[in-house]
Design a protein that fits this description.
This protein is an alpha/beta fold. The protein contains five helices and four strands; from the N terminus they run αβαβαββαα.
C-alpha cells in the first residue's frame, strides 16, 4: 500500500514531535519591527518549530526568512497576507506561495501600480518622527 504524500511530514516534521507553530508573522518587509532574519531567530528563541512569514502584500523577505529558518532548524512555510479593498478591509492569508505564480505576481504588481501596497513600516515611523521633530522645533521659534 502506498502512503499518500503529507507536506508536513515530508518537510521534516515527525508526528511524534510536538508542534510549536506560529503561522502569522510580519517583518520589516511590510509592517513588522524586525527583519526576516530577526523574526526567525526570535521565533526559535521562543521554541517555535513551524513558522510562516505572512507580510502584507509582498513576497519580499521570504528568501531571507527561509534561509534563516533552515539554518535554525525550523520548518518554514512561505506566506503572504493580501489586503482587500471595499466597504471594509479584509486580510486573506495565503500559504505555500512563491514568486513566479502569474496570478499572484500580477495582483501584487497591480496593487503596487495603484498605490495599494503597505509602505515599509520603518520608513513610515521615521517620517512621522521627523515630522514631529519639525513641529517641536517650529513651536520653539
Amino acid at each position: 500500500m502506498c502512503r499518500q504524500p503529507d507536506p508536513l511530514l515530508d518537510a521534516g516534521l515527525i508526528a511524534s514531535t510536538p508542534w510549536r507553530p506560529d503561522l502569522h508573522l510580519h517583518t520589516t518587509a511590510s509592517d513588522g519591527l524586525l527583519s526576516p532574519r530577526e523574526v526567525v531567530l526570535r521565533a526559535r528563541a521562543q521554541g517555535v518549530n513551524l513558522m510562516a512569514v505572512t507580510d502584507h502584500d509582498t513576497l519580499h523577505g521570504l528568501e531571507e526568512a527561509a534561509l534563516t529558518a533552515r539554518e535554525a532548524g525550523i520548518s518554514f512555510i512561505p506566506g503572504i497576507e493580501i489586503s482587500t479593498q471595499g466597504e471594509e478591509e479584509i486580510h486573506l492569508l495565503g500559504y505555500f506561495v512563491k514568486r513566479g505564480n502569474p496570478g499572484l505576481d500580477a495582483l501584487l504588481e497591480l496593487r503596487g501600480r495603484l498605490g495599494l501596497n503597505r509602505p515599509d513600516f520603518r520608513s513610515v515611523l521615521q517620517a512621522r518622527m521627523e515630522h514631529d521633530e519639525q513641529e517641536v522645533l517650529a513651536g520653539d521659534a
